[in-house]
Amino acid sequence: MEFTFSLQTLLLVAIFSLLLYIFSLYAKPKKNDSATHGFRIYPLVGTLPDFLRHRHRFLDWSTEILSRCPTNTSVFRRPGKVHGVITANPQIVEHMLKSNFDNYPKGTRFRTLLQDFLGTGIFNSDAGVWKTQRKSASHEFNTKSLRNFAMDNVALELRSRLIPILETAAVTEKKLDLQDTLERFAFDNVCKVAFNVDPNCLGGDAAAAGGFMAAFEEAATLSSGRFMYALPNLYIIKKILNLGSEKNLQKSIAIVHEFADDIIQTRIQEKTERKDEDLLSRFIQNPKNNPPPISQRHLEQKILQELEFTRKKNDKSIGESYTFDELREMHYLHASISEAMRLYPPVPIDTKACEKDDTLPDGTFIGKDWFITYHTYAMGRMESIWGEDCCEYKPERWIQNGVYRQESPFKYPVFHAGPRMCLGKEMAYIQMKLIAASVLERFSVEVLMEKDECPEYLLSLTLRMKGGLPVRVKERIV
Known about the structure:
Elements: H1 2-26, H2 33-36, H3 48-54, H4 58-67, E1 73-78, E2 82-87, H5 90-99, H6 107-118, H7 127-141, H8 144-172, H9 178-195, H10 207-225, H11 234-241, H12 244-269, H13 279-285, H14 292-313, H15 324-328, H16 331-343, E3 349-353, E4 358-359, E5 365-366, E6 371-375, H17 376-379, H18 383-386, E7 399-400, E8 403-404, H19 425-440, E9 443-447, E10 457-459, E11 463-465, E12 471-475
Antiparallel strand pairs: 1-2, 3-6, 4-5, 7-8, 9-12, 10-11
Helix pairs in contact: 1-3, 6-10, 8-9, 10-12, 11-12, 14-16
C-alpha cells in the first residue's frame, strides 16, 4: 500500500513537471510593473517558468533582472508559498540587517532546509538559541590567545605545506588545481583552529580526513540545492524514499557527523588532561558550554565543597549529623534542590473550580463552574518566566552574591502560593538537604540508564518515573 502510494506520487510529480515545462514555453506573463522591470510573474505559477529556464545561471540571471529595476529590488514568487523580495539595494540591506534586525530572522524555511546538515548551530538558529551561541562564541573569538593560536597555525601550514607545494609546481611546471589546493589548505586550518585536529588534506595521505572533506563539501552543495527545487517540498518525498540527491546527502551528513562526534567525545574524555587553545577545548572548558555529564560532575563537586566548608567551620567529621543552622547555611545545596523541583515538581499540575464568571488578567473569560488548572511543570520550562536557558538545570540562577535568593511563589508554585501555601515547606527543605548532604558526602551515585535516555513519567497526583531509577552506588574514598 505504501509503495503504491509512493509510486503514484512520483508519477503525479513527473506529469506535473512535464506540464509545467510545456506551459513555461508558451505562457505569457501578467502585464504589470514586475513584467516590465523585475521578475516576470505568470498566472498561477509566478516566476517559476523563467526560474526553470535560468536556474543553472541563477546568479547572473537575477543580477540582470535587478540591474533593470529602478530600486534594484523585485518581488519573486513561486508555487509552494515561496513569495519574497530579492534586492541589491544598500538601504534595504541596512534596514534588514541593522535598523529592523529583529523583524528579519533566518526563518522557518531556511532553518528547515538546512537543519539536516547544520542542525541548530549558530549558522542555522534564531532568537534565544542564536543569542546564547553568539554570546558564547563572541567571547572566545575576542580572546588574544585564540587569535595567536590561529595565526601560529596559518604560519605553520604555509611554511610546511603550501609554500613547498607551490615551489614544487614551479620547478616541475606541473599543472596545479589552485582552487583545490587552497580549499585543502583552508580545510586543514579550520580543523586545526576549531578542533586542534590536523586532517592533513593538503599534504600526505589522509584518506579518512579527505573523505570527511569531500563529504562536507557534498553535504553543503546538496543542502543548498534544496532551495532550487521547482517544487519546494519535493526533497521531502525524495528523503522519505531515500532517492537520488537526498540519498547522497544523508550519506554525506552521516560521515560529517561521525567525524565531528568522534572528535568531540574524545576531547570530552581528555578534558582534564588537555588544555588546548582550539575552539572546541574552550567551549568544553567553559562551564556554560559543558554537556550534561560534565555539568553533573561540576554540580557534585560544588556541593561537596560546600559540605567540606561547613564541616571545617563547625569542626565536624563525615558521618556526623548537621544541625538546623548548619543546613540553613548550605545555599548551593538549597539552590540545587530548588532547581530540580523547578524542572520536575512533585505536584506537576493543580486544578481549581470557578465559582462565578470572571475575566483573567490577560483578558481570557472563564465561566461559572469551569475548571482552571495551573501547570507547574510547564511553568518551569517557560522562557518568558525563566529566560532563554529555562530548560537547562542551572542552580546558579538561585544564587545572588553567594546567598540563596527566593523567587515569587506565583512564579515558582512548587509549594503552592497564597493562603494555601504549604505549611511544611521549610521543614521539607531541611529534610531534603540533610538527606542529600549525608548521602553525597559518603557515596557517589551512578544512574544506570543509556546515554540521553529520558525516564518515562507516571502521572499521578505526584510525578514519578516508570520503572523506578536504577543506580549504582559506590562508597567515596575519604
